């Protein structure tokens, strides 16, 4: 086999590879010998089928299999010998001429093809030990727990039918038919819809127009669907709802005590408060983690500048851009609504893609140097968590990941990233700063909006 470099430009490489016909024929002969003991043909005893006959029947398919194996072997061995790491799977350009390809498959002509790939860049890691990190910390107060318990009591309140008109906070049972331009629309009717006035769960203006309604009363409600409404055929359109009130029920104030707490599977009110505090503190902890991770990634990005594999950047950009455009379509918004243009947005998101690729390579280099590994147990837990997201399809999802190395790698990558981040944070100079819950979560919301 002869390997000749035809391109070395930046991170791009192209090699011309020639595999002699004699080598191909030798491999084919060995493969046909294997097939002798496997195939069953009428008129021949097992293992006694002439090789020439096998070559006529299976020669081309066996040679196609051999060529594929050669491509894989060549890629692996060539990269090892050259001391290079491919950024992505190499691509191959095989003979396009049908006659030439046929001669190769018949073992009569050398296999000549090109292998194109991009190498991972070599770079020096910046001095990340001792990076200064500001860690905002918020503690859940008793007053916040009290407020959350009170909210739970309101949200889980029982209702009792009452006489008189509906008020804010009441639950109204109605039958209704929605119409646009006087014609009923699909999904706009219900015989026993329940609306809690003030919950904000219906179209803006719908609940307010039920205030003062009584059992047996008929009303026509006038509303306008939001511009970003999920059903595109309704978004932004004016509609009417013909409503008949069937029941008005007022919330029954819950007695917040141990008995009430048992409704939620907890033995006492104190245990309920403890559980809620833990959940709220966990939320704050996640917000803190996100904040310091963003700081860390920002600083690592500042420390490193090197050439990036173009194909990796392009693939990452496509992933980001597809998500952006899908989000805009779902919300019914445009780039103009976001005070930008498609061209400007593409430029911004390409920078984000470059940052992601650069940080991915930096984190990988740090993790490799620190010998950080994702254990089989960690990967198995991630797989189980993923499978649980698809109830009823557990077997199919498991088989998909088991037979798809790239999909399995997508589960391993975030675990590896978090472990590397933990490693770097362990070396960082972290200063704790106490903030309020509102400040911590507000900052987090702003950070997500900015991202």
Automatic annotation (TrEMBL):
It catalyses: [protein]-peptidylproline (omega=180) = [protein]-peptidylproline (omega=0). Its EC number is 5.2.1.8. The keyword Cytoplasm applies. It is an enzyme of class 5 (isomerase). SUPFAM superfamilies: FKBP-like, Triger factor/SurA peptide-binding domain-like, Trigger factor ribosome-binding domain. Keywords: Cell cycle, Cell division, Chaperone, Cytoplasm, Isomerase, Rotamase. Residues 169-232 form the PPIase FKBP-type domain. Its main location: cytoplasm. It is found in: Cytoplasm. NCBIfam families: tig. Consists of 3 domains; the N-terminus binds the ribosome, the middle domain has PPIase activity, while the C-terminus has intrinsic chaperone activity on its own. Involved in protein export. Acts as a chaperone by maintaining the newly synthesized protein in an open conformation. Functions as a peptidyl-prolyl cis-trans isomerase. Belongs to the FKBP-type PPIase family. Tig subfamily. This is Trigger factor.
């Amino acid at each position: 086999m002869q390997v000749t470099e035809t391109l070395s430009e930046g991170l791009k490489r192209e090699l011309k590879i020639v595999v002699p016909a004699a080598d191909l024929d030798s491999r084919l002969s060995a493969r046909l010998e294997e097939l002798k003991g496997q195939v069953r043909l009428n008129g021949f005893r097992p293992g006694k089928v002439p090789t020439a006959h096998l070559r006529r029947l299976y020669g081309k398919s066996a040679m196609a299999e051999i060529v594929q194996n050669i491509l894989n072997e060549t890629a692996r061995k060539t990269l090892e010998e050259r001391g290079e790491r491919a950024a992505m799977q190499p691509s191959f350009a095989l003979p396009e001429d049908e006659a030439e390809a046929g001669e190769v498959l018949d073992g009569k002509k050398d296999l000549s093809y090109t292998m194109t790939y991009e190498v991972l860049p070599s770079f020096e890691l910046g001095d990340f030990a001792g990076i200064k990190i500001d860690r905002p910390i918020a503690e859940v107060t008793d007053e916040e727990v009290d407020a959350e318990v009170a909210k739970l009591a309101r949200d889980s309140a029982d209702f009792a039918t009452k006489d008189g008109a509906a008020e804010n906070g009441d639950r109204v049972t109605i039958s209704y038919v929605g119409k646009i331009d006087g014609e009923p629309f699909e999904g706009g009717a219900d015989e026993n819809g329940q609306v809690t006035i003030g919950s904000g769960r219906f179209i803006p203006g719908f609940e307010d127009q039920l205030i003062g309604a009584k059992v047996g009363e008929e009303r026509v409600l006038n509303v306008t669907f939001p511009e970003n409404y999920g059903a595109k055929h309704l978004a932004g359109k004016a509609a009417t709802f013909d409503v008949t009130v069937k029941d008005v029920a007022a919330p029954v104030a819950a007695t917040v005590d141990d008995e009430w707490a048992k409704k939620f599977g907890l033995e006492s009110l104190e245990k309920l408060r403890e559980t809620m505090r833990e959940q709220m503190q966990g939320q704050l902890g996640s917000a803190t983690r996100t904040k310091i991770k963003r700081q860390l990634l920002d600083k690592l990005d500042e420390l490193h500048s090197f050439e990036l594999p173009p194909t990796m950047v392009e693939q990452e950009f496509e992933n980001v851009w597809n998500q952006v455009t899908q989000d805009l379509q779902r919300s019914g918004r445009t780039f103009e609504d976001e005070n930008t243009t498609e061209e400007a947005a593409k430029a911004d998101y390409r920078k984000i893609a470059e940052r992601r690729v650069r940080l991915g390579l930096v984190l990988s280099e740090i993790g490799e140097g620190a010998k950080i590994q994702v254990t089989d147990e960690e990967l198995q837990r991630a797989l189980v968590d993923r499978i649980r997201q698809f109830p009823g399809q557990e077997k199919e999802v498991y088989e998909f990941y088991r037979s798809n190395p790239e999909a399995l790698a997508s589960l391993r990558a975030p675990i590896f990233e978090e472990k590397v981040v933990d490693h770097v944070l362990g070396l960082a100079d972290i200063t704790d700063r106490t903030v309020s819950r509102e400040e911590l979560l507000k900052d987090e919301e702003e950070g997500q909006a900015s991202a």
